[in-house]
Amino acid sequence: MAELHLTPQPIIEELKKNGVTHVVWLPDSETNFLYERMLAESSIELVPVCREAETMAIAAGLWVGGKKPVVLIQNTGMFESGDSIRGLGLDIGFPMVMMVGYRGWTRHGVTLDSAARFTEPILHAWGIDYYLVETDDDVDRISNAFDEAEKKQTPVACLMGAEYG
Amino acid sequence: MHRFSATKMLLEHLGDRPVVANLGPSTDELWHSGDRDRNFYTYGSMGLCSSIALGMALSTDEQVISLDGDGSLLMNMGTIGTIGREVPSNLIVVVWDNEQWAQTGYQASHTAFGTDLEQVARGCGIEKTATVRDEEELLSVFHQALDEEGPWFIVAKIQEEEYLPVSPVEPEMTLYRFRKSFGD
Predict the structure, then answer these.
(1) Quick check: is A115 in a domain?
(2) Is A34 domain-assigned?
(3) Does A39 touch chain B (CB under 8 A)?
């Protein structure tokens, strides 16, 4: 069976297909592979922040101004951002797509890292739907997330698995 | 200097520019100063006022004004670094600095013990900064900020006074009308 990979270009193409103008992000190990390609992509602006809770607020401001941002953080940062997601995502009905590096995700049923163990239960608690993106074959789920966010006017997450090449 | 009087003064001079107000008294006093479509009132997510304004500033060429507070900004000082990195020339941050978390019981904040937010901003690379202590100084610097490219970071030292009634605005309606007046 062929080895499965998640590579940057299909992800970037998916973002472009959805009209993304800005990626508001904090670097993390799971999504670092996107960085160089995003820097080279002139149609998407990167807005790096100091702490993840900033991302939703900056993204909300961009959205209010007519832009289409996406948030790119790690699951640990999503935990840190709880009040920001509540106030600037859920409460105002911001159709925000959060691409979340799924630290600790193993796909083998035994998840030792609490960052991974708590990720999906917390999304469930917030009522935020999510899509798992592990390989290039999954990247169209990013479009599903955008569609759902727009349709329901609410945040939706893409959990970015760590299997990348 | 008092926040309500100073807010009214700024509102008289800022024209049609969009304003984002920190939660609590800053939002209430902006509403009492003059409700307008381009007032973006915040209700929760303490600390994120200037981050929202930064996002707005990055989405437009218009000048965007943030009316933040010391206690809130202390919760999210990283955003000063992000502003310093992005260098949005159209962003004006005014920090109402009463050196306390007044709404929760007047507990002294860090700015009462030496944290100098203007120096933090300068350390983050924001060159256009000021600390003002009366309305005359504030108005003078504010006019300069309206006329010159920023980002601007103005710390306005204020004294607390009795709170005005909570503003009767609904978040959904505020957002709807602000977006209609501001977005592409």
Answers:
(1) yes
(2) yes
(3) no
To test the contact with chain B by mutation, choose from A49, A55, A58, A85 the residue with the greatest count of B C-beta atoms within 10 A, namely A58
Structural domains in chain A (count): 1
A86 contacts chain B (CB < 8 A): yes
Q: Do A61 and B52 touch (CB under 8 A)?
A: yes
Kindly state whether residue A152 falls inside one of the protein's structural domains. Answer: yes
Q: Structural domain boundaries of chain B? A: 3-182
A96 in contact with chain B, both atoms CB, cutoff 8 A: no
Q: Tens digits of per-residue pLDDT, B107-144?
A: 999 999 999 999 999 999 999 999 999 999 999 999 99
Q: What secondary structure letter does DSSP report for A86?
A: I
Residues 6+ apart with CB under 8 A from B162: none
- Helix ranges (DSSP H) in chain B: 3-13, 25-33, 49-59, 70-75, 78-86, 117-123, 135-147, 171-182
* Whether A70 contacts chain B with CB within 8 A: no
> Domain B3-182: which topology?
Rossmann fold (3.40.50)
Helices (H) and strands (E) in chain B, counts: 8, 8
CATH code of A118's domain? 3.40.50.970
Give tens-digit pLDDT for B71-108.
Answer: 999 999 999 999 999 999 999 999 999 999 988 888 99
